[in-house]
Amino acid sequence: MRIFAIPILRNKWAYYCHSTIPTGSRLTKAVDWSSKKWEQLGEAEPDTLKRKLYDRGNNLMNQLDYQEWFLKNVPKKEDIEYSPEKVSVFYSTCLDGLEIEKDLQHLLDEREPYHKKYMYYSAYWVPVASTFAIVPLIPNIPLAYNLFRLYSHYKAYNGARHLKSVSLNYVASPELDQILENQIFDTTDQVKLPDEIEKRFLESPKPNIQDILHQNIPGVIDLENITTISHHFESPGMEVELKRARYQMLAQIAKERFAKQKQQ
């Protein structure tokens, strides 16, 4: 098991956990099987019901905080055959190793009680949501959503617990440095977002800017570099997680800049 801290901007990065440790958990195996079936829906033709269901489901999942996705990828300590005593955290030298160490520790301290709290909240709402099943022929969306959030908080909570129980070893990665050698990073204050984003905020308080932010923007990690990093470390899931984190970070910057401007 290893952790990566990948720079998105000069002062913003995303974590990803890559684990190949076998797990004996039936729940994890069932979810992995379901995930594979879900991804198969994405291979359907664009106009089919399967593909539309997949796209809408992905849009919902992409709204979940990228930090939660990171913690969900950390296997539960009790579910793996052997738990490592030390886990390496690899980062590019364009980032400050001490800042990463402080940030990750703060994230774990903050998210462990947070996900524990909302795990119980989601569990409390499951019986209430179950009552919607009395309506015939209509899918019980509230129940499905609460079960999804319950599992998500459960996984993130146990992921945070697991990382807090091991020794984290922070290591500068020459491989990441080589891949990102020609990449230029700006800070959140310096990065210049496309003018079209500001235009859309003037037209609507909650504009759709996904198509713009899912393109290369100067000062932000290139999408091609994300793909290269994922392939280099043989971790296909990393590409999806990093692109999700990249989008959420840029969307937050856009909201803070342009939504406030419109209010003024």
UniProtKB/TrEMBL annotation:
<dbReference type="Pfam" id="PF10173">
    <property type="entry name" value="Mit_KHE1"/>
</dbReference>
<dbReference type="GO" id="GO:0005743">
    <property type="term" value="C:mitochondrial inner membrane"/>
</dbReference>
<dbReference type="InterPro" id="IPR018786">
    <property type="entry name" value="Mit_KHE1"/>
</dbReference>
<protein>
    <submittedName>
        <fullName>Mitochondrial K+-H+ exchange-related-domain-containing protein</fullName>
    </submittedName>
</protein>
<keyword id="KW-0812">Transmembrane</keyword>
<keyword id="KW-0472">Membrane</keyword>
<dbReference type="GO" id="GO:1902600">
    <property type="term" value="P:proton transmembrane transport"/>
</dbReference>
<keyword id="KW-1133">Transmembrane helix</keyword>
<dbReference type="GO" id="GO:0006813">
    <property type="term" value="P:potassium ion transport"/>
</dbReference>
<feature type="transmembrane region" description="Helical">
    <location>
        <begin position="118"/>
        <end position="138"/>
    </location>
</feature>
